[in-house]
Design a protein that fits this description.
Radius of gyration: 22 Å
Structural class: alpha/beta
CATH class of the largest domain: Alpha Beta
CATH architecture of the largest domain: 3-Layer(aba) Sandwich
CATH topology of the largest domain: Alkaline Phosphatase, subunit A
Order of helices and strands: HHEHEEHHEEHEHHHHHHEHEEEHEEEEH
Shape: globular
Number of helices: 15
Strand content: 5-15%
Number of domains: 2
Length: 464
């Protein structure tokens, strides 16, 4: 092995290239804002009239929103592993929160180390939830600002931003909400579960009917209605039911919640989203007060969404749009097209965040990263060589979309299939997999999933 090969394999090649390029131009500060369990539609700038998110909307006003952005795996730890490393969670045999293999191989390649070696000050605050050897954020190359995930996190990040900086910074502010919505279903099955937990306290505060409003007026005027795709997909794959039954409370609420219960869930989810928007606003205000807005790229996204009552399901982990599609806004002063919505390009925040950050900072990212930088898209122009398909991994399935169709294979259950036409059926109400007239589309999407999975080291043998 010659010196160049050694440097590549050890990761030092990244640092040497990154440092050389970094010295040649002024590099922007980078602020990455993460929420937890926020669906793509949970912003007023995305057309949701049942909540108000002025901080997120301000990013959209001066930045660019990607409409077709997805999580690599719509559950916390796998998604966060992907954002930190640029790889699918299957790279460490991870399909849900509890299990992973070989995460230690990715420690030296984690986001913080890459930017630290390139001369950035790397700081992190809030929720971590990474697997195995990456569990401590300091192991991933970041200085830990605070473990708080709520208001204190916002204040600590604001103080950091207003402080003195002798080098560009990469700051990750990782907020917990609207994740507290999880406890509504958990406590529906077991009312005493985490009864004194701060998250349940916040959830109960959010679900309250406003003072002076009668229950009748609340449901007539204030509470969001049932979703248009409230009923289960027909025919519903056994894999969907199997996933619901992996957690007792998920199946319980599907079987027992009333229409009003589901609507209150939607109300609470909106209020929790507004709560975190207020905390994000504190951080963005600090940028303005420190006069760093023009020198700082802000990227806002979430680790996954929430089913929010679609198909009588709450929580995450499904390949449905509500769980898998996430907000992604990039504000890059002088580069991003203000107020533009990119509804063409398929983006994975897991695969594409790290390459994008490296591209923005002028760092040569590792050549084996499977993702793409979205920086070339920020001017609002189409990129002809962009990916045609995007894969989504889940606990029991793997899915692929081409932007119009989405195909899901429940490879960990019974190899059941679901095919939906997102253009004509955005609520994914009709499973077209059994339809003979859709055989050509089904076969094309099957083949695309096998090919894409193989490209990422996963062997699949879907039905034929």
């Amino acid at each position: 092995m010659d010196r160049r090969d050694f440097l590549k394999s050890s990761g030092l090649f990244l640092a040497s290239c990154g440092s050389a390029r970094a010295q040649s131009a002024k590099r922007p500060n980078i602020l990455v804002i993460l929420t937890d369990q926020q669906s793509a539609t949970m912003m007023s700038c995305a057309g949701n009239k049942w909540l108000s998110t002025p901080a997120m909307d301000s990013l959209m006003k001066n930045g660019m929103r990607f409409e077709k952005a997805y999580a690599a795996n719509p559950v916390c730890s796998p998604s966060r592993f992907s954002m930190m490393t640029g790889f699918y969670p299957s790279a460490v045999a991870m399909r849900e929160n509890a299990k992973s293999e070989g995460a230690e191989r990715f420690v030296s390649r984690a986001m913080g180390h890459i930017f630290q070696k390139a001369g950035y000050e790397t700081v992190y605050g809030g929720k971590v939830h990474l697997p195995g050897a990456m569990r401590k954020i300091t192991d991933c190359g970041f200085r830990n600002l605070t473990g708080d995930q709520r208001a204190e996190l916002a204040e600590v990040c604001a103080r950091y931003i207003k402080g003195a900086h002798d080098k560009p910074f990469l700051l990750v502010a990782s907020f917990i909400n609207p994740h507290d919505i999880c406890f509504q279903a958990i406590q529906a099955l077991n009312p005493s579960k985490w009864s004194t937990n701060r998250a349940t306290e916040v959830m109960h505060e959010a679900e309250k009917i406003p003072d002076g409003v009668s229950r009748r007026e609340f449901f007539e005027k204030l509470c969001p209605p049932l979703r248009e795709n409230y009923e289960p997909t027909k025919p519903e794959p056994k894999g969907v039911v199997a996933l619901l039954k992996t957690r007792d409370f998920r199946w319980y609420v599907r079987q027992n919640w009333t229409d009003e219960d589901w609507r209150i869930h939607r109300w609470t989810y909106a209020r929790l989203t507004e709560r975190v928007d207020g905390q994000i606003g504190i951080v963005l205000d600090a940028l303005r007060q420190a006069r760093l807005e023009d020198d700082t790229v802000v990227i806002f996204t979430s680790d996954h969404g929430d089913m929010d009552g679609a198909h009588r399901i709450e929580h995450k982990s499904h390949s449905y749009e509500e769980a898998a599609r996430i907000p992604l806004i990039v504000r890059y002063p002088g580069v991003s097209k203000p107020g533009h919505v990119d509804s063409e390009h398929l983006v994975s925040n897991g695969l594409d965040l790290l390459p994008t950050l490296c591209d923005i900072a002028g760092i040569e990212h590792m050549p084996d990263l499977p993702g793409r930088s979205v920086k070339p898209l920020l001017g609002g122009k189409s990129k002809s060589k962009w990916r045609k398909y995007l894969m989504i991994e889940t606990e029991l399935s793997r899915a692929i979309t081409d932007g119009r169709y989405k195909y899901t294979l429940f490879d960990a259950v019974d190899n059941g299939e679901m095919l939906c036409d997102l253009k004509n059926d955005p609520g994914e109400m009709k499973n077209l997999a059994p339809e003979k007239e859709c055989a050509d589309v089904l076969n094309r999407m099957r083949a695309a999933l096998v090919k894409e999975a193989k490209r990422h080291g996963v062997k699949l043998a879907p039905p034929s």
